[in-house]
Design goal:
Elements (H helix, E strand, L loop, with lengths): L1 H4 L5 E3 L8 H11 L2 E4 L5 H13 L18 E3 L5 H18 L12
Parallel strand pairs: 1-2
Antiparallel strand pairs: 2-3
């Protein structure tokens, strides 16, 4: 993301199923070298749908009323690795991604 945007990331906000793993979130922080910020309620797609539905039927009259939702009881994972260790972790992650590629060599490998 930094390479594409040209903007240095200082913190990454996460949600969804994978963010339930403390180990995975700490690994993210260690590999990326930035803080990982996880909300208490991690299924934010469902939360967003519920908020939109509530707004649509008039439970809230203004979007400003929703500003504080899901902002309390957040977990912050801070990097604990050196720059050298971080580079090694990132290289290993890139190797794992490369190894995961190419499982299907032809579209006809799957029968319909």
């Amino acid at each position: 993301m930094e390479r594409d945007s040209g903007i240095r990331l200082e913190r990454l906000a996460v949600d969804g199923g994978m963010s339930n793993s403390d180990e995975c979130m700490q690994l993210q922080a260690d590999i990326m070298g930035i803080d990982i910020d996880r909300p208490a309620m991690r299924e934010t797609t469902a939360l967003g749908a519920a908020l939109a539905a509530g707004y649509g039927i008039g439970i809230w009259g203004d979007f400003h009323e929703l500003q504080g939702i899901n902002t309390e009881s957040r977990s912050l994972f801070r990097p604990t690795t050196s720059e050298a260790a971080r580079e090694k972790l990132f290289k290993n992650w890139e190797r794992a991604v490369d190894r995961a590629k190419g499982w299907v060599s032809d579209e006809n490998d799957f029968e319909e």
